[in-house]
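Minutes, methods subgroup
Present: GH (chair), OT, SY

1. OT presented the first of two proteins processed in the latest run. Sequence and C-alpha cells recorded below as shown on screen.
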Amino acid sequence: MADPESIPSPRQLRVTKILSPVGPSEADLLRTKELNKFLIDAGLYESKEESLKRMKVLSIIEQVHGPGTSIDTLCVGPSYVNRDEDFFFGLHNMLTEMEEVTELQPVPVAHVPAMKFKFDGISINLFYASISLLVVPREGLDILDNSVLYNVDEPTTRSLNGCRYTDQILKLVPSVEHFRTTLRCIRFWAKQRGIYSNVTGFLGGVSWAIMVARVCQVYPNAIPSMLVSRFFKVFSHWRWPNPVMLCTLQENELGLDVWDPRKNPEDRTHCMPIITPAYPSMNSSYNVSTTTLGVITEQILFGNRICEDIELKKAEWPALFEAYMFFKRYKNYLQIDIVALNTDDLREWKDWVESQIRQLTLMIERDTKGKLQCHPYPRAYSDPSKHCAHIAFFMGLMRKQSDVVIGEGQSQFDIRGTVDEFRHLVNMYVFWRPGMDVYVSRVRAKQIPVYVFPERIRASRGAKASTSSDV
C-alpha cells in the first residue's frame, strides 16, 4: 500500500492515483459477511414495506407540486414560478390541507431554503429550484449539465447542488453497491461517535460520502469490510488541510464562486477541506473548526485501532460502533436549554438555535484566546417527565488550567459576557415569537440531568426508569 501521507498539498490540487488494485481475500469476504449481518441486525436497512411507503410518499408529493421533475425531494420549476409566492405560500397552503402532512415547517431563510414536514410519518425536506426554462420536462432533464445553473439565484444553485453532488459521486466510484454499503457503515459510525453534524461544526452527509468515495477510488477492487478498514487507515494519516477531491476542479465557466485556495485567500483558512465534485466546487466542511477537527481526528484514530484489532481477530464489528460516552469525557459542560410556548414553536426555534451553537463555540474560543475549547454534542435531549416545550443541548469544556464560571465566583475564564452575546445573537431571529428563549449554564459532570442517560444508567443513578428521547 502506498503511504497515505504522500497525498498532495492544496497547492497542487490534483487527485491521487490508485493506492492498491488488490481484491478481497477469503478473510475479507468473511469479514464483509459479518459486517453485513451486523448492519441488518442493527436495523440499518429498510424493509421492503418501508421502501415502498417512501416511494409512495414521493409519488404523492410530485402530484401536489404539479408539473416538474422530482428528484428525491427536489422540486424543479420554470423561471416564472416564484419561490416565495408559489412555493412557500401556495404549496404551503396546499400541504396544510392534507391530513397526511404533519409538523409542516417552512424555512425560507436557511442557507438552502426548504419546506420541512412529515408525510404519512416520513420526514421530508423539500427544496425548490427555479431554472431558466419556460417549460421543465418531466423526463430527460440532466441536472448534471452546467446549463441548469445559467442565470439562477444562489438559493437555486444550492438547492440543485445537493442532487448534482450525489449524482456525480455515484458516477465517480468504481462500485456503487460497495460505496453505498461502506457509506452506510461510516455514517452510522459517525452518528454513534457524535461527529455527524454539519451545523454544529462536524461533518454532514455529503462530506462523509466524498471521503468514502475517495477511498473507493484508490482501492477500486476492495469490498466493504476492506473499504471500512482502509477508510480509517487513510484518514488517520491524512495531512490536513490537504483537500479531499474526487476529480479535478472544473473551470469557472458561469462565473460562480468555486473553491480554489490559489485564487481565494479565504479558502486557505479552511482546516479540513472536502471538495464537492460538481461545478461549482465548494468545501462541504467549511464549518469545521480547529477544535472539531481535533475531535474528528481523535475518533478516526479510534476507528483505525478497532479495525486493526478486527483484522487481528482481537475484536468484532460491534466494537467499532459503540456509542461515544460523551458525558463521561469531561468534568465541565455547558447546558443550553431551549424553550418555547408550544411544540410547533419549539421545533422552529430549536433549528435556529442549533444552527448558532457553532458560533457560541467560536465566541468562547475567541474570548479565551483559544485556552478554552468547546466540544458541542450534536444531539438534543428532552425530559419525558415534563410536559413542556423544552429541549437541551450540551457542550463539553476542554479547559487547560482553571475552571470556567458563568455564574458567581472568580476564575481565569469568565464567559458570562460571551453567553450574553450569544443570547443576543439568537434573539435576533426574524421569526421570533413570545415564549422563545434560550438559557446557558455551566454544569459539572455529576450535575448532568439524568434524562440524557440510557435507562440502565439512569436506574443505577437512582433515577426513575423512563426513556430519554431525541428531538
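2. SY then presented the second protein from the same run.
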Amino acid sequence: MVLPPSFQSDNPNQVCRLVRSLYGLKQASRQWNDKLTGALLSNVAGNNPVQINQLKQFLDRSFKIKDLGQLNFFLGIKAFRNSKGLNICQRKYTLEILEENGFLESKPANTPFTTGLRLTNLEGDLLDNPGIYRRLVGKLLYLTNTRPDISYAVQQLSQFVDKPRHTHLTAAHRVLRYLKGSPGNGLFYSSNSDIKVQGFSDSDWATCAESRKSITGYCIYIGKYLVSWRTKKQATISRSSSEAEYRALASTVCEIQWLIYLLADLKIHIDSPVALFCDNRSAIAIGENFVFHERTKHIEIDCHVVRQKIHEGVIKLLAISSHNQNADGFTKALPKPSFDFFHSKLGLQDLHAPA
C-alpha cells in the first residue's frame, strides 16, 4: 500500500488505516489475475537453468516468493525426478485412505469395478451414516489426478453421494481393494518424449439404467504419455450409438483445442493435424460429411465443432478397432484381460514395486 499522491505529512512513520481489504472486493480475483498474467507474459519460461533463476528472481521482486527448491511433495502428490523423467504418484495419500477405511490388510482385487454391475438409486438399504461414503468418494475423486485407471469406477460412485446405499459402499470398497494391490502406481513422463498430440474418444451408449444417458470417455497423449483423460455422463440422451460417439468426439475435440492453446503459450506449435481415433465409423462419417442433414439435424449445433475443426485442419479423424481403443476403460467396467490391456496404455509406473 502506498500513500495517495496528494497526501502530505510531516511524520514519515505515519500510515493509512485500511478501510476495506482488497481481498474482500469482487474485483480482487480479476485484479490479481491481471497482475499475474502480465508478469508471466513479460518473461519466458524454459529448461535453461540460467533463465529459470532469472525468472525466480523476477517473481521474487514482483511478488516476494520463497524458493523451496526441487519439487518433492505437493498437495499429497509425490514427485520423483531423475535423468529418465518425472514420476508423480499419491502413494502416501492412498495408504491413508486404506488405513482410514480399514483396508490395509484386505485382499487385493484385480479390477476396480465389477464387470456388468449397474448401480441404481433404488437397490439396497440406505446407509445410516452417509458421511462415510461421501468422504470416501471425495478422496477417491482427488486420487484420480494420478490414477486414471479408477476414473470410471469413481465416476459411477460419485452419482450416489446424495442418498448412498449399501450396494454403493460395497462397490466403493472394491476400489479400495484394487488400490491395495498397487498403492504406489503413478504417472510417468519421459524427459525424451516427442511433442506429438493424439487422442482417443469413446462412448458407451445408454449405459445409465435410470436415465439412459451415455458415457463419454477420452484420453489424450503427448508422445506416449497420458496428459488428459475424462469419464463423464452426457448431458442429454442420444438417440443412437453414433450420436453418443459423436458427442464424445465433440468433447474430445474441445479438450484437444485447449491443449493446443496451452502448448502455444509454452511456445510449442503443433503444425500437423492431431490424430483423433474413434471406433465408430458412422460417427466419423458424420464428422467428415457435411450433407448428413436427416441423420444429424437433431444434434445440437455445439456438437458440430468436430466438423469445424476438421475443416480447419486442427484434427484428423481415424478409425480404430474396439480392441485397440485406449479410451474403452473410461466408459465401462472391463474384464481382467481387457483391463490389463487398458492399464498398460496409461503409462502408469510403480516406483515402490519390487524389481
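Chair's summary of item 2: Residues 89-181 form one domain.
Next meeting: continue with the remaining queue.
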